[in-house]
Design brief:
Blueprint lengths: L3 H19 L14 E16 L2 E13 L10 E6 L13 E9 L12 H7 L2 E13 L5 H20 L2 H12 L7 H10 L9 H17 L4 H18 L4 H18 L6 H15 L7 H16 L14 H26 L3 E2 L2 H26 L4 H30 L4 E2 L6 H25 L2 H6 L7 H16 L6 E5 L5 E7 L5 E8 L5 H12 L4 E2 L1 E4 L4 H12 L5 E2 L2 E4 L6 H13 L3 E4 L4 E4 L2 E7 L15 E5 L5 E4 L5 H13 L8 E3 L11 H7 L3 E4 L12 H9 L3 E4 H4 L2 E6 L2 E6 L4
Parallel strand pairs: 3-5, 10-12, 11-13, 12-14, 14-15, 19-20, 20-21, 21-22
Antiparallel strand pairs: 1-2, 1-4, 2-3, 4-5, 6-7, 8-9, 8-23, 9-10, 16-17, 17-18, 18-19, 23-24
Length: about 750
């Protein structure tokens, strides 16, 4: 068997994957109440400064944590502590044991498709919860000299970047060389991510190769013994990994570097795939959930693509000499090999793929060596104890600035090109498995051809057996189309969980996309953190129409974000109530729409919007309706499919609006009730009148409200009325997003959170 150790490690990884699919690990139990004050004892394992609300805040991570009253045998887990400014008279040293008092805050689950699952992310990292407004109560005297030296060295280097570079350049260089991403501005982070070069911000093989192998060659030229050179370099790279936080990508790079130098010392052959598989196994032995970690998957996937698949897509050449164009082709083949691994992963993590990242990385990756070398020179010069050292650091910092400015220019221009970001959305699992099967078949066919080519007859005649290049490329193209194609069947209505607010997404049979409201008063940046991720998850690049039932903040705050940032989601038209109050909120919406060139339409009772597989009919307000209440002017719309499934969308309409809507419904021939009812005003007792509910007799009632909201929504009276009508009641604060799929006269309800 070739690569027996590699095969054993791969078998272990596959076993872990199957086990997690069949038997998911239990979620951590929360013994401490949310918002309670607690005193904990633990060992400082990480510390850094982060800017929070304009103030530099010390953030500590404690391990082996136990409650003050608990015995030492009960210790375990990690906690992140956000310290109060001035809470520490003396900054706790790394490795020291301290007692900390603070307010408990648990990590939240993703409540909508596409949302960030903080609970799972921190569970992977082994962090149980966090403490806010923390202060050190008692601090021990013993500490880890090794860890403290590394921390101070990192802080020293960060200060050099702060002195030698502009703030934005310094934050990027801290991420690139020191692993500190906490100071990265959102604009830079998103720009690199959207253009497909976010990998430059992660400590990975490029860093370890440049630093470790560069140092190894220097030591060898100094005629030091090879074993001594290897031991020095491995030790320093481990220390570097510890200094920058030893993420999964850094661990993989340091481990593979160590195996490579160990193989040189022992005069054995280094096998990259075996080292990669062994690194993956060791990480998963400690924490199996890393199989769900984006950094782990992308880091290991990149090396797997280069090591296994770049050769599969490489053109067959008989000659041995490589021309310049051949080197370009080989680089593209390496990128294509990484693409075959990264493409389905990117769709599962980010739901889109930067089309021009192939070409961009051909420029960025070679330039990264120059950037890192300039950054190291900047750190070296800035460490000199002379004023000239700072001047030299600024000169080398100018080189860093030019390269980073070039990266920004390239990224910006690439995103301005047509089809820069391909957004097919999150593919179904069976499509991912089909894509993987096609790639595995190409890999197997390639190695079968290599095996057959080694027979005596083929070697004598110089014959290379393998699939023609056209067949390989067509297979890749077919696999890409297969995994990125999403079929639309029937009509889909999703009531997003936006906390105390409303947001309804509708997809037609023809793939048209509509949004009814989108805002929240309990969640900040609801557009950026909930609505846009959900739309990306569904593969939505544009909305055919957005309906704002009325202009209260809990219905429009997220939509305003979408309009202001038109690059994410394009809105074709905005529809509002004809009776809308022309106040400051109206003026703000109008100004944003005018700036974004979005036409605004005013709707009244009798207006009708046609779409594939359904139509929307406005029931309220009537023409000429006047009110001094935003809620009273809410649009009330009935969605209906040809086979009789109906959905009543009510905004925050009040009793008189409900009465008007009821009269309009009664006028409709053959009216026999409503299938799905979106409860008015988040389930308020002052709406959802007995008259309306007894008329529509909904089979399913959906209430959109936030947990522990100050209004007490949904009110008990509303729940009783709906129960009296025989309705099945679903509340977003309990279920997360609620999706109703309508097809062939039937509907199916799915909740995002399974309790």
């Amino acid at each position: 068997m070739r690569r027996p150790l590699c095969c054993v490690c791969v078998a272990f990884v596959v076993t872990v994957f199957l086990y997690l699919k069949l038997v998911p690990l239990p979620e951590p139990a929360h013994e401490l109440p949310e918002g309670g004050t607690v005193t904990l004892i633990g060992e400082v394992c990480q510390k850094e400064y982060q800017e929070r609300y304009g103030v530099q805040t010390l953030v500590l991570q404690l391990k082996n944590v136990r409650r003050q009253a608990a015995d030492k045998a009960a210790e375990g887990g990690r906690v992140i502590c956000y310290m109060l400014p001035g809470a520490c008279l003396q900054e706790p040293k790394a490795g020291s044991t301290i007692a900390v008092e603070g307010i408990v805050s648990h990590f939240g689950r993703a409540r909508n498709p596409g949302g960030f699952d903080a609970r799972q992310y921190y569970q992977i990292l082994g962090v149980d919860f966090r403490l806010y407004k923390a202060r050190v109560v008692v601090q021990g005297s013993s500490y880890s000299v090794y860890r403290e030296i590394l921390y101070r060295l990192r802080r020293h280097f960060e200060k050099i970047f702060d002195r030698a570079l502009a703030a934005r350049d310094a934050s990027i260089m801290k991420a690139v060389l020191l692993g500190n991403k906490s100071e990265l501005d959102t604009q830079s982070r998103q720009l690199f991510q959207k253009s497909g070069i976010a990998h430059i911000l992660a400590i990975s093989g490029l860093h370890i190769t440049l630093l470790g192998m560069g140092l190894y060659r220097l030591l060898r030229r100094a005629y030091l013994p090879q074993p001594l050179c290897a031991v020095i370099c491995i030790g320093l790279m481990i220390a570097y990994g510890d200094m920058v936080g030893m993420s999964s990508s850094a661990y993989r790079a340091v481990f593979m570097f160590g195996i490579q130098l160990t193989a040189l010392m022992l005069r054995r052959t280094y096998d990259m795939l075996t080292a990669l598989a062994l690194a993956a196994m060791l990480i998963l032995l400690e924490q199996p959930l890393y199989l769900y970690h984006a950094g782990f998957l992308l880091s290991f996937g990149a090396i797997l693509g280069v090591g296994c698949l770049s050769e599969v897509v490489k053109p067959v050449r008989q000659g041995k000499s490589l021309r310049f164009l051949d080197k370009i082709v080989l680089s593209l083949c390496g990128s294509l090999g990484i693409f075959l691994i990264h493409f389905p992963l990117m769709l599962c993590i980010y739901y889109e793929f930067p089309v021009y990242s192939f070409v961009l990385n051909l420029i960025v990756i070679p330039a990264m060596s120059v950037l890192m070398a300039a950054g190291l020179l900047c750190l070296g010069a800035g460490s000199l104890p002379m004023a000239a050292g700072l001047g030299l650091a600024k000169w080398t910092g100018a080189v860093c600035h030019l390269i980073l400015a070039g990266f920004e220019w390239l990224c910006t221009k690439s995103l301005e090109l047509p089809f820069a970001n391909w957004r097919p959305g999150r593919p179904e699992n069976w499509r991912i498995y089909g894509f993987s099967a096609a790639v595995a078949a190409l890999y197997a066919a390639h190695h079968r051809g290599k095996h057959l080519s080694k027979c005596a007859a083929c070697e004598k005649r110089g014959i290379r057996i393998g699939l023609p290049m056209q067949i390989r490329l067509m297979t890749v193209l077919a696999a890409v189309i297969f995994v990125s194609n999403s079929s639309v069947s029937g009509v889909s209505v999703t009531f997003l969980d936006v906390g105390q607010g409303d947001c309804v997404w509708i997809e037609s049979e023809k793939g048209e996309h509509f949004l009814v409201d989108g805002g929240s008063t309990s969640e900040s940046a609801i557009g950026a953190y909930t609505i846009v991720p959900y739309l990306k998850y569904m593969g939505v690049s544009q909305l055919d129409a957005v309906f704002l039932t009325h202009l209260d903040s809990d219905h429009i705050s997220g939509v305003l974000e979408l309009i202001a940032d038109g690059a994410e989601i394009r809105i074709n038209r905005l529809c509002i109530s004809d009776a809308v109050m022309e106040d400051s909120a109206y003026e703000k919406v109008s100004a944003l729409c005018e700036a974004a060139q979005i036409p605004v339409y005013r709707l009244r009772a009798g207006d009708r919007v046609e779409a594939g597989g359904f139509w929307l009919e406005v029931l309220h307000p009537q023409s000429g309706y006047e009110t001094d209440s935003r809620n009273a002017s809410s649009l009330v719309m009935k969605l209906e499919t040809p086979d009789g499934i109906t959905v009543l969308l009510t905004g925050d309409v009040e009793a008189d609006g409900e009465q008007q809507a009821a009269r309009e419904l009664q006028k409709m021939p053959g009216f026999s009730g409503i299938t799905i009812y979106k409860a008015s005003h988040h389930g308020s007792r002052y709406s959802n009148t007995e008259e309306l509910i007894s008329l529509i007799q909904p089979e399913l009632a959906v209430v959109s409200c936030g947990a522990d909201n100050r209004y007490g929504h949904p009110h008990a009276e509303t729940i009783e009325r709906l129960r009296g009508a025989g309705s099945d009641i679903w509340i977003t604060k309990d279920t997360g997003a609620i999706t109703v799929k309508i097809q062939n006269g039937k509907y199916k309800v799915e909740r995002y959170l399974n309790k």
